[in-house]
Specification:
By secondary structure, this protein is mostly helical. Helix content is 74%, strand content 3%. The protein has one domain (9-310): Up-down Bundle (Rhopdopsin 7-helix transmembrane proteins), CATH 1.20.1070. It has 13 helices and three strands. A three-stranded antiparallel beta sheet has the order 1-2-3. Strand 1 (67-69) and strand 2 (75-78) form a beta hairpin.
Length: 315
């Protein structure tokens, strides 16, 4: 086992570049949702919530935090302004980032719930009342809150971490001592509960999304002869766009899952692979917003027309 304690400058550069791109793309997405959405009732505010979380998530995780894992030891430190300027430690910065990640998941889930409610209003026999939407929103936030609280208490203090390193990895003790700040996680009851809460959250959110998607397509099929083709197409397009964004969402959770898998098999170059996975994850917010723009005709047409106008090309 070999661990590098040098800061991977190429990874920091990727964080900076991707964060800048994310700010530009997601700001465009926020503008499109706010001013180019047309009449899609308050569903656009749920979508706005999701894209805003994308922007905040990328900015906090990959500019303010800049995480650097020290696998195969389940530890790491941060390189961004959270520590260098504000002296917010690795664990607290990770907790803040996890809050935003949880909000991203909740926002995407609630987009499906709100779209299901909007379509159900077209059929009075299957209309979903606001109480169910409030219940779904409350459930998602209770699960997120539980997950965050357990994650917060899974952190250990510096001295306990150093004692653990000295006992189990004495060859790296001096390097850990030289770090101004780092966080180490141990296998204990809290971490087991934290992982269980994360699994429960993922299962619940996925179940809600699958349920809403199935019911949406059932409703649209039954309403084909009752609403206009334009109205039907608009709803189908919105659902397709949400599904496309859902498909890209696992990129955000790839590093911990893949790292845990590689740890189980004692992969030799796990630290370098974890850096690559984090570089991929930093693209998540940008990809999500691009998918939204490309799969929503009003947004796609607006951007296309602006690009053509800039380059003075006639349609």
């Amino acid at each position: 086992m070999k661990i590098s304690f040098e800061t991977p400058q190429w990874l920091i550069n990727i964080y900076h570049i991707i964060t800048l791109i994310s700010i530009l793309i997601n700001s465009l997405g926020i503008y499109l949702i706010r001013f180019q959405s047309g009449k899609i009732d308050n569903f656009k505010y749920f979508l706005l919530w999701f894209i805003t979380c994308n922007l905040l998530g990328d900015f906090i995780m990959f500019f303010m935090t800049q995480p650097i894992p020290l696998l195969p030891i389940w530890a790491g430190h941060i390189h961004g302004p959270f520590w260098s300027i504000f002296h917010i430690g690795t664990h607290m910065a990770s907790v803040i980032g996890s809050v935003i990640m949880g909000q991203q998941a909740a926002a995407l889930t609630m987009c499906f719930v709100r779209k299901y409610q909007a379509i159900s209003k077209l059929d009075s026999r299957n209309e979903i009342r606001n109480n169910w939407v409030i219940f779904a929103a409350s459930l998602t936030h209770v699960l997120i809150g539980t997950w965050i609280v357990l994650y917060y208490f899974s952190g250990i203090d510096r001295q306990t971490a150093l004692d653990f390193i000295q006992l189990n990895y004495p060859e790296y003790y001096s390097q850990f001592v030289s770090l101004d700040d780092f966080q180490l996680y141990m296998k204990n009851g809290i971490t087991h509960w934290f992982i269980s809460a994360a699994a429960m959250m993922a299962i619940t959110f996925t179940s809600i999304i699958i349920f809403c998607t199935v019911k949406i397509f059932q409703l649209l099929r039954s309403l084909e002869n009752q609403i206009s083709d334009g109205h039907l197409k608009r709803h189908k397009t919105a659902v397709t766009s949400l599904l496309a964004q859902l498909i890209t969402s696992p990129v955000a959770f790839l590093p911990p899952v893949a790292s845990g898998f590689l740890l189980a098999f004692d992969f030799e170059h796990i630290q370098f692979i974890s850096w690559i996975l984090l570089a991929m994850t930093s693209c998540h917010g940008t990809i999500n917003c691009l998918v939204m723009i490309l799969t929503c005709p009003p947004y796609r047409v607006f951007v296309k027309n602006k690009i053509l106008k800039i380059f003075c090309v006639e349609k």
